[in-house]
Amino acid sequence: MSSEDGDLGRLPKPASKTAGPADASLVDRLRAGDAEAFAEIVRAWSPMMLRAARSYVSTDASAQEVVQDAWMALVRGLDRFEGRSSLRTWMLAILGNIGRSRGVREARTVPWSSLGPVDDDSPAVDPDRFQGPDDAWPRHWTPLGSPRPWPRSPEEETMAAESRSQIEDGLAQLPERQRTVVTLRDVHGLSSDEVCSILGLSASNQRVLLHRGRSRLRAHLELYYAAGASAMGS
Amino acid sequence: MNHEQRAPGLTVSCQEVVELVTDYLEGVLDPDMTEEVEAHLGLCKGCATYVAQMRDTIRALGTVPVATLSEDAQAELVRAFRDLRGPAASES
């Protein structure tokens, strides 16, 4: 497996959907033929692998086959794993190789990284919400433009289902590259290094896409909460 | 009022902060800028709320359900693992 990236060794964020057992013992268990350990990582990693695979190939069915092939390649190649990266990073490299060659065969339209500039130039916040050059505090919030605290954190019980459907709705409306980066980072909990290597992005382009995507989603939730507030006020 | 006279936290504007927030949360701002942004957040309720909302947004994203392989496909992989690597697989 190629290890093109120098600093892929960093562990993923904790408490993500993709968190699995600690690496060293995991590899030992797998090598010892522990099927429980294998079932555990199949459960933990398949969702993010499926999403990553979907960026290489054009259909869900095809992505599923890529993921299954990648798991089989891991099973067969376990003895070649040298532990220079985490097992998960190694798995993602395998997935990338299989996914990319399959994508080429499927003639998946444009390679993802050549879709033009990553920056759509849209500001995170409407410029009208900041004071103008002649105001007392240029480029600081106007009294009306300043963000209102949301009624409660989107995570809490009663609002949870509704705000989740709002965020899913907002995600669906993002441009493809922003959606892919935000989904891999924040829905699946991958690290920026992992996302850069899956998508062939530079660290700074990854951050631009993440920033644009998250900023739009915040704005989407803000609209939703503002509508709720005015509905309650009426 | 010129910039040199402004207190820490006021050399950066709100409009800049909302564009720096991802770099800030990613921990890639240089130490001086990080300090400046934090000083700004201490002074500016609007920006503090904004950053809290970005964190809420990220948290909400963590609750989005995800697709995975079917139970059958997963079971088949585990079976293949047992066949290839399980204790019984090492024919002695």
Radius of gyration of chain A: 21 Å
End-to-end CA span of chain A: 62 Å
| Average pLDDT metric of chain A | 84
CA radius of gyration of chain B is 25 Å
Kindly state the percentage of residues in helix of chain A: 55-70%
The count of DSSP E runs of length 2 or more, i.e. the number of strands of chain A, is: 0
Q: List the secondary-structure elements of chain A in sequence, H or E.
A: HHHHHHHH
Oligomer: heterodimer
Main pleated-sheet profile of chain A: none
Q: What is the number of strand segments of chain B? A: 0
- How much β-strand is present in the residues of chain B? under 5%
Structure classification of chain A: mainly alpha
CATH architecture of the largest domain in chain A: Orthogonal Bundle
Describe the largest sheet of chain B: none
- Ranges of chain B where pLDDT stays below 50 over 5 or more residues in a row are none
Task: Describe what this molecule looks like in 3D.
- The complex is a heterodimer of chains A (234) and B (92).
- Chain A contains eight helices and no strands.
- Chain A has 234 residues and is mainly α.
- Chain A folds into two domains: 83 residues, RNA polymerase sigma factor, region 2, helix turn helix motif (Rna Polymerase Sigma Factor, Chain: A); 120 residues, Arc Repressor Mutant, subunit A (Orthogonal Bundle), CATH 1.10.10.
- In chain A, helix 5 packs across helix 8.
- The radius of gyration of chain A is 21 Å and the shape is elongated.
- By secondary structure, chain B is an all-alpha fold.
- Chain B has one domain.
- Helix content of chain B is 63%, strand content 0%.
- In chain B, helix 1 crosses helix 3 and helix 2 crosses helix 3.
- Chain B is elongated and about 75 Å long.
- The mean pLDDT of chain B is 90.
- At the A-B interface, helix 2, helix 3, helix 5, helix 6 and helix 8 of A face helix 1, helix 3 and helix 4 of B.
Summarize the structure.
Chain A has 8 helices and no strands. Chain A is mostly helical and 234 residues long. Chain A is elongated, with a radius of gyration of 21 Å.
